[in-house]
Amino acid sequence: MSASKLDAVYRSILLTKFFTKGWGKPENLRRLFEFRKVVSNREECFKLVERDYPVTITKEQNVAEGKLLEGYFTSPLEKHLPGIVPEIAQKAHFQALLPTKWPDKDCKPVCLHLAGTGDHFYWRRRNLMVKPLLKEAGIGGIILENPFYGLRKPIDQIRSSLHNVSDIFVMGGCLILESLVLFHWCERNGLGPLGVTGLSMGGHMASLAATNWPKPLVLVPCLSWSTASAVFLQGVMAHSINWDLLEDQYLSDGEYREKLSKMVTIVDEAFLAGKKFARTYSQNMEKNVQTATQTKTSDNVGNNSNKNLDITYKENKNESENTEKVIDVTKTVLDSNKIVKNANRTELENQIENLNEELKKLLEEGKINQALYEKLISNKKFELDPQDIEDINKLTENKLKEMLLKCKVAELRNEETLLSETLTHTKESNDMTEQRSMGTSNITADNTNVPTLKAPEKNELIPEADKSKSWNITDFTSDIWANLPFFKPSGKKIDIGKIHWRDREALQFMRGIMDECTHLSNFSVPFDTSLIIAVCAQHDAYVPRDDVGTLEEIWPGAEVRYVDAGHVSAYLLHQSLFRSCIIEAFERSKKRWKDGKHID
């Protein structure tokens, strides 16, 4: 589906910027990652909030719509992770609007409404959702103020501009536990059945909150999806982030790279790999069929000298006139070495073997040490020690140095699609030493095919080099050179609209931590998925759904509905649809509600 242009235009005129101070303290991120493992387990998380958790009501008055209550309580997250919640955000404020008289004294439905991005204070949710639901269906509403918003906004924070990436995880942790407090408060006051909803970010927070309530709970997330990673890396909000600042912090502080990056996992990596395999396998099969057809035609019209090698078993070896081209399967064990070297060989394999032989010769001659030798043949990312750099610079085999450089750079640049892209060539550039003199490298490049150290699998298609294209040093982005320690990064800024999150290590880290803390597959499945109705916009440019797990896959039994709109237009034009879905989900819940509780 095409992305909404209105979403992009609307986002471009907003002034709000996110994560203006960076990732946040590494220690805070570490504590949040560890705490995520607790809150993602419903049984463990439910124990964190007592049934009689203290709630203070500060205001109670009758209004035209019903009874209005206001209150507060201390966020349980401050109790379990002291010091991680800003002091002003530690007190959770809420407002409740309930009917003066319930239509059914045994059924008092109440829905918790969580805030979307930029939804400060109570008035927006009260007027657009709570009042109409109370009037149309007799459903009471509770409006919880988000941490970092409204009454809980830090003094030095401008609008909704969260200072740190860690703040979004603090917000999520607070709302998960604070929702449990309010659900307990509702039960103590005889309210129910219960539900939770929200729009955009509020919809995702509602989904997280619902995973930890051990009873049937109505859930209607609107304009959200399975993870926040796509929002910040692929959606239009990615343009509101200072990626250069985040990358500088990530590369300069070893805590992020060496410790925190190992604590997170990109959840949909297997999904992406499987999708890519299915696509490339289909393409390769088509190429194989075409090649086989062409070969068969060539065999039929050509002379005998152009026939393919026959490796089929011949019961009568004398009946074939081309006996020298027939391989008897009974002899393959004895002649296996010869067959491997002659019958099933590729140019790339020969290049790899020659390269490894030269490396081994250098090792035997003492020109490189064992550690450097193992790095160069490992086909993995590596960092060069000062001694390694010195050894490389002493080499006189310029050809070999050039091959090593291009092997590693090509692999670092695009490991995922290397075998599906055209191999490039290089121009004569003997002045590379002068251009990179600050990096203490003397490696040169000329017109040589770019090999990789990894041999292709059997029957794997390797594209031929495109001789019409040339390789130029300026084509590389700064993060590639950053991965080669003996080069100085160029300092080129990140243009999130032109690169993929896989292309930069800092973006991969962002994808990993967002998936770690927000991906719904990392949390428990809601108690009763039949009470879930999700509403999504088909052309949503804020919340892309490509290449991430679907709600139907993660929550079997949940229902997903789509509106033909973008994110902004759906918010402006389809509020009535969101309310109708909430009413419908509560009607489902009421059918199983009796004597103040759900029945099986």
UniProtKB/TrEMBL annotation:
Compositionally biased region (Polar residues): 435-451
Gene3D superfamilies the record matches: alpha/beta hydrolase
Coiled coil: 338-372
Keyword entries, A-Z: Coiled coil
SUPFAM superfamilies according to UniProt: alpha/beta-Hydrolases
Region (Disordered): 428-451
InterPro entries named among the record's database cross-references: AB_hydrolase_fold, ABHD18
Presence of keyword Coiled coil: yes
Any single Pfam family the record assigns to this protein: ABHD18
Name the record gives this protein: Protein ABHD18 isoform X1
Gene (UniProt): LOC114246811
